[in-house]
């Protein structure tokens, strides 16, 4: 039973079942199941990850099969204009097969829909599959253990709005025209977004080279305490706090670091603040979890400077089993693909073991430490010092030895003011960009909605109605089925004659 949302169609349109309008709906197979191996060069073997932006991204294909395997796996061979539909893992990646993609085969996570293309426009079918029209049919179907999947039967039961063939082509042409203009605008917005990111990086670079506060330093030269004096006081407090655990850190290798303005020093992270590695309370103890205190993970640091919320939370008992982090701690991801991702928490809580937190000494401005941690120089040092494995890791000991530029506390405040002022302008610009991108997406959906309600292009009374088109499709399918049966009967008859010696 289809979950497609039905509505009134133009008089010349009909609702049509994919199983009726298609000649073939099948899926691929895995060559290794039949004893074939993948090779470095040969016939394209397409997987879900190779379907990108409505096409087969051939340069992303890394596994190929022999011509022998291609011929043997006949069911998974592709033909020009086939519509591909991913049915496992990432569901509903859609593509049209072009002549340049061939020869090619697909695996079992992809369905191929093949129609009589002289009666159905392949681009129209692809666009319908991509549109919200078929979303209810697909969203209600995913199932599976460990990986979402839908069946070929689910694909066959999708019902689509079917206009006359000529109108299908007019709709596709109009959508392409409108989407081309829309994409140009979206690309321009994405460029602005990228420029804002580069601008922020440039602001941070200049800030920690002391370029925003040069004049301020000259005017206050005799009034400010040098960072070296500040550092000695910090070390004294750290030594007092840690007592027997305290150990002198190796001196910073200044030769490998950029030169700093007068009055600044390079210092180890461990001397800027206390480093705390997170831990996860036992998941089997449900009483440890609740909504009382945030439990920060790398995915919760997306808000960066304004990190307040977490997906998971801890109870009071859970917090006792974790390591308390006060508000205005700096959380740095030190493992995995998002290594270096940083958040400035506004609400006290705890973190998991993927995060090293810096709780700044009271002589340092927490906001300053956060901005220093997201600066290009510090982020590069995280990558450079992480273990060179598939899963990069920077443990607490190595993290503590990373270096940060430390100016006098008064200059730290001034630097934060300068960064805040410039970042607030960039943030406002980015809000406008994001709003425009959302509007572009709404416009895209509006175009598709109008297209499949018959309101995007005018109807032509001279077009063959879709009902007649559907009758022709049914008649051609019936004729082909009849021919198959005749051929099967002829082969069976010939076999009987041969076996009976006739």
Keywords:
502 residues; alpha+beta; Adenine-n6-DNA-methyltransferase TaqI, Chain A, domain 2; 41% helix; 15% strand; four-stranded antiparallel sheet
- What is the radius of gyration computed over CA atoms, rounded to a whole number of angstroms? 32 Å
Q: Which fold name corresponds to the CATH topology of the domain at 225-407?
A: Adenine-n6-DNA-methyltransferase TaqI, Chain A, domain 2
Class per helix and strand makeup: alpha+beta
Helix fraction bin: 40-55%
The CATH class of the domain at 225-407, by name, is Alpha Beta
Assign the CATH superfamily of the domain at 225-407.
DNA methylase specificity domains
Mind explaining what this structure looks like?
The chain contains 15 helices and 20 strands. It is elongated, with a radius of gyration of 32 Å. The model has no long low-confidence stretch (mean pLDDT 89). With 502 residues, it is α+β, with helices and mostly antiparallel strands. Helices cover 41% and strands 15% of the residues.
Briefly say what this structure is.
This protein has 15 helices and 20 strands. The chain has helices spanning 18-21, 67-72, 122-130, 135-139, 152-156, 165-207, 214-219, 227-242, 269-272, 316-321, 366-373, 376-385, 396-400, 409-451, 466-499; strands at residues 14-17, 24-27, 43-46, 51-52, 55-56, 64-65, 83-86, 94-96, 104-106, 110-114, 159-162, 265-268, 273-277, 289-296, 312-314, 330-333, 342-344, 350-351, 355-360, 403-406.
Write the layout of secondary structure elements.
Layout: E1 14-17, H1 18-21, E2 24-27, E3 43-46, E4 51-52, E5 55-56, E6 64-65, H2 67-72, E7 83-86, E8 94-96, E9 104-106, E10 110-114, H3 122-130, H4 135-139, H5 152-156, E11 159-162, H6 165-207, H7 214-219, H8 227-242, E12 265-268, H9 269-272, E13 273-277, E14 289-296, E15 312-314, H10 316-321, E16 330-333, E17 342-344, E18 350-351, E19 355-360, H11 366-373, H12 376-385, H13 396-400, E20 403-406, H14 409-451, H15 466-499
Parallel strand pairs: 3-9, 14-18
Antiparallel strand pairs: 1-11, 2-10, 3-6, 4-5, 7-8, 7-10, 12-20, 13-19, 14-15, 16-17, 16-19
């Amino acid at each position: 039973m289809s979950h497609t949302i039905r509505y009134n169609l133009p008089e010349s349109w009909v609702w049509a079942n994919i199983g009726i309008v298609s000649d073939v709906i099948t899926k691929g197979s895995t060559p290794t199941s039949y004893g074939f191996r993948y090779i470095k060069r040969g016939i394209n073997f397409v997987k879900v990850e190779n379907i990108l932006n409505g096409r087969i991204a051939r340069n992303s294909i890394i596994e190929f099969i022999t011509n022998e395997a291609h011929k043997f796996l006949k069911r998974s061979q592709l033909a020009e204009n086939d519509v591909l539909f991913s049915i496992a893992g990432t569901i509903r990646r859609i593509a049209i097969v072009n002549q340049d993609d061939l020869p090619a085969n697909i695996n079992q996570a992809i369905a191929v829909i093949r129609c009589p293309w002289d009666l159905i426009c392949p681009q129209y079918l692809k666009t319908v599959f991509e549109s919200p029209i078929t979303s209810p049919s697909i969203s209600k179907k995913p199932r599976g253990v460990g990986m979402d999947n839908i069946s070929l039967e689910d694909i066959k039961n999708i019902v689509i709005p079917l206009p006359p063939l000529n109108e299908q082509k007019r709709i596709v042409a109009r959508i392409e025209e409108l989407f081309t203009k829309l994409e140009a605008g979206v690309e321009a917005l994405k460029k602005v977004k990228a420029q804002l990111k580069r601008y922020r990086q440039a602001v941070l670079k200049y800030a920690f080279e002391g370029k925003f506060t040069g004049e301020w330093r000259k005017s206050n030269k005799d009034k400010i305490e040098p960072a070296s004096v500040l550092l000695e006081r910090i070390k004294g407090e750290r030594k007092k706090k840690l007592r027997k655990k305290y150990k002198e850190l190796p001196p910073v290798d200044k030769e490998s670091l950029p030169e700093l303005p007068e009055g600044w020093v390079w210092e180890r992270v461990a001397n800027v603040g206390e480093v705390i590695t997170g831990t996860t309370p036992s998941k089997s103890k449900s009483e440890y979890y609740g909504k009382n205190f945030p439990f920060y993970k790398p995915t919760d640091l997306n808000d960066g400077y304004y990190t307040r919320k977490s997906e998971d939370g801890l109870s009071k008992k859970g917090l006792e089993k974790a390591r308390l982090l006060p508000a205005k701690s700096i959380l740095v991801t030190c493992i995995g693909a998002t290594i270096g991702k940083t958040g400035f928490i506004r609400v006290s809580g705890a973190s998991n073991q993927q995060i090293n937190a810096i709780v700044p000494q009271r002589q340092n401005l927490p906001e300053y430490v956060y901005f220093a941690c997201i600066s290009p120089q510090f982020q590069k040092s995280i990558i450079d010092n992480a273990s060179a494995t598939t899963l990069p890791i920077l443990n607490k000991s190595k993290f503590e030895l990373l270096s940060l530029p430390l100016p006098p506390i008064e200059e730290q405040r001034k630097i934060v003011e300068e960064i805040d002022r410039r970042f607030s302008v960039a943030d406002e610009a980015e809000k406008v960009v994001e709003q425009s991108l959302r509007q572009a997406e709404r416009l895209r959906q509006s175009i598709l909605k109008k297209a499949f309600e018959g309101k995007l292009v005018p109807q032509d009374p001279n077009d063959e109605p879709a009902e007649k088109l559907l009758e022709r499709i049914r008649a051609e399918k019936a004729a082909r089925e009849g021919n198959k049966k005749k051929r099967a009967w002829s082969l069976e008859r010939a076999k009987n004659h041969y076996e009976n010696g006739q």
